[in-house]
Amino acid sequence: SVVMALKVEVNTKNGDTFNIGCSFINQTSNLLGYSAFEDLPHFFNNLETVLIQLGVKELIVPQNIYAIIQNDDTFTQVVDNCNCLLSPKGKNMFEFNDSTSIPVSSLVTEEDNDVLLQLAKSPHSSLINSSFQGLINYLGLAMSSSSSYKKYDLVEYSLSQFMKMDQSTVTSLNMFSDDLLDDSNNQISQSMVTSLYQLLNKTTTLQGSRVLKTWMKQPLLNK
User: What pTM was computed for the model?
Assistant: First the structure.
């Protein structure tokens, strides 16, 4: 399951949009990631796309986020439509300070120095780092960072790489049904094809089926 933390702030250059910084973790893939993007109040189309494409199951937000989004019910509706659990937490969990906060570098492998440099150069680095603090504090990642096997691969997720998809598109194309698992081997039963995913799924391992599902959620724009 993918867990995500995000922070929202009003865009100072364009007051009609929000800047959203988010970080996420996929324990199965040993992956830690981040993203930043603009979104429109009363729509949150980009947020919906991110939640769907990353398969986010729980979204951690500061409790004061509701004041920032002006009590816009669309935000909670989007999260709910994506079958994602919304978990408001104290805003102090998201506070970031260069000298006292837990650095992301302590959680990732040394090979990810280039990605860390990109994060530092991002115009929304403060927003992203604040979301990382919320994720780290909520999941207690710092307590296990000393173990070498708990080092994560760091990636930057960019909306511009993939075709934008919302939940209505996923439903209309019947991409993923409520697939039932075969209890004997934990594999999805192929006796009845009820979704596009089941039709295409010729994989032989659980890892392969997860990769296929990820690719279907993230159609590349570059052929």
Answer: 0.82
